[in-house]
Design a protein that fits this description.
single chain; Rossmann fold; 4 domains; two-stranded parallel sheet; about 10% strand; binds glutamic acid
Length: about 500
């Protein structure tokens, strides 16, 4: 038997940002299609005209592109099964609705929102699950006509068969939906707009979708959709419902837990490859303890069988860890270029000349990478490296009071002054061996050499190693800081100040 051609879709409503949950659904569909050599398409479920926009549609597309997820058919690129916006597919819904009417599997419903609300309230009061009473099913032709002449515009309701429905879900296994719980439901609203369940079935069928892979919040819709496929004599796709992403408190992941939109992650300096890797492991596992997967590697490793039934917990710390790993795995020149771009976004650093010096940027990247979890940290870390030191304190004065140390620091200052603005020359003059030479010439050894240098330049006891720090600060800063430190701590200063 030949495997059916794989055609899958991601079908977001373009009403807002792409969220991490949606991105994961898109990713699983994409991986499944690519693995099978099938087709992945994007469909814009924009039937709610008041909430949908082309802006949202393009921002979702841009976020998917950023993640590296591409599609073969979609509203932006077309395709043989188009159009790919539900707002442009009215004809398909009209034909399917007519078919249901013809077969007497749907009927016009004139109930007003108020009447429906009253029904709902009454069921709740009785403690039973709300279900449409079927009131309009029994209307005669004459009654329908009379209501229409009163100007009432009916919705179209599908007659939900009362039998049990079984779905063999590719993730959850056999799912049983007992009959009789679901009332007749609206397929076309009174304004002519198709309801989600109806439009999804008509489109999935017309677009020959083979597998519906989506979040399990849609599981309750599945029996309705199955009944519609059968009523319309359309072959059923296979279903795979992926469990929700929960926050660490086991509630549905939402804004109050932090960022949920893919664009927020991008804007905070997460790398697409880290987010993809992390999202893939949210609910899917490779079956071994491998953790690192690039998108292409995921394509090879992915299978629906390895999607877990249980909910996945969004672990921000783990995502951050992945991001750090991916950042540090980048070749240093590439990382340096990224750091420069992110530093430039910060007002404090935008005009920093060093940001166009490739060698300086590479030194910076080596110095701060361990402290950068997301690229948004770059500006703060860079500013910290360059920050003006605090006032000269007792520690620094005491360290500079030692004659050999003072000489060594003064020599470093002289070296810096001689270099003028030549960062490259200063880098050579402050290499490990060159600093050791200063020690030899001045008689300052070990701690008596490096500690006073560091204190004079930063006032800190610890930090980035001097052969990295000094070239980062550059000759001008170092010269100025040293001369200030030497001035303030000049022998006799104390006596003069108090005398
Ligand atoms: N527009 C629906 C959503 O965004 C699609 C659900 C489905 O995949 O059937 O949730």
């Amino acid at each position: 038997m030949t495997e059916p051609t794989v055609r899958v879709r991601f079908a977001p409503a373009p009403t807002g940002m792409l969220h991490v949950g949606g991105a994961r659904t898109a990713l699983f569909n994409y991986l499944f299609a690519r693995r099978a050599g099938g087709t992945f398409l994007l469909r814009s479920e924009d039937t709610d005209a008041s909430r949908s926009s082309l802006t949202a549609e393009s921002s979702i597309a841009a976020d998917l592109h950023w993640l590296g997820i591409s599609w073969d058919e979609g509203p932006d690129i077309g395709g043989a099964w188009g159009p790919y916006r539900q707002s442009e597919r009215q004809e398909h819904y009209g034909l399917a609705a007519a078919r249901l009417m013809e077969r007497e599997l749907a009927y016009p419903c004139f109930c007003s929102p108020e009447e429906l609300d009253a029904e709902r309230v009454a069921s709740e009061a009785k403690g039973v699950a709300p279900k449409y009473s079927g009131k309009c099913r029994g209307l005669t032709m004459a009654q329908r006509r009379a209501l229409e002449t009163q100007g009432r515009r009916p919705a179209l309701r599908f007659i939900m068969p009362p039998r049990d429905i079984y779905v063999e879900d590719l993730v959850r296994g056999a799912v049983h939906f007992p009959g009789g719980l679901i009332g007749d439901f609206v397929v076309v609203k009174s304004d002519g707009v198709p309801a989600y369940n109806f439009a999804a079935v008509v489109d999935d069928s017309a677009m020959e979708i083979s597998h519906v892979i989506r979040g399990d919040e849609h599981l309750p819709n599945t029996p309705r959709q199955v009944a519609l496929y059968e009523a319309l004599d359309m072959p059923l796709p296979l279903f795979a419902h992926v469990s929700m992403i929960l926050a660490p408190d086991h509630h549905k992941l939402s804004k109050r837990h932090g960022a949920t939109a893919v664009s927020e992650y991008r804007d905070r300096g997460f790398l697409a490859e880290a987010l993809i890797n992390y999202l893939a492991l949210l609910g899917w596992s490779p079956g071994n303890d491998r953790e690192f997967f690039r998108l292409e590697e995921l394509v090879d490793a992915f299978s629906l069988e390895r999607i877990s039934k249980g909910p996945a917990i969004f672990d921000h710390a783990k995502l951050l860890w992945f991001n750090g790993q991916y950042l540090r795995a980048k070749p240093v020149a590439e990382r340096a270029a990224l750091f420069a771009a992110w530093a430039r976004r910060d007002d404090r650093l935008a005009s920093l000349a060093e940001l166009s010096d490739d060698e300086w940027l590479v030194t910076l990247a080596a110095a701060i990478s361990d402290h950068v979890g997301v690229l948004a940290d770059v500006a703060k870390e860079t500013a910290t490296v360059l920050a003006e030191p605090s006032q000269i304190d007792g520690e620094t004065k005491a360290a500079l009071a030692h004659p050999a140390s003072r000489k060594a620091v003064a020599e470093l200052g002289a070296v810096a002054r001689r270099c003028g603005t030549d960062r490259r020359a200063f880098a050579a003059a402050t290499a490990r061996a060159a600093l050791a030479d200063i020690g030899v010439r001045t008689g300052a050894k070990g701690r008596a050499l490096y500690r006073p240098m560091r204190l004079a330049v930063t006032r800190q006891e610890h930090g980035i190693e001097l052969p990295v720090l000094l070239p980062l600060l550059g000759p001008q800063r170092v010269a100025a800081r040293i001369s200030a430190a030497l001035d303030v701590s000049a022998p006799g200063q104390e006596a003069q100040a108090s005398g």
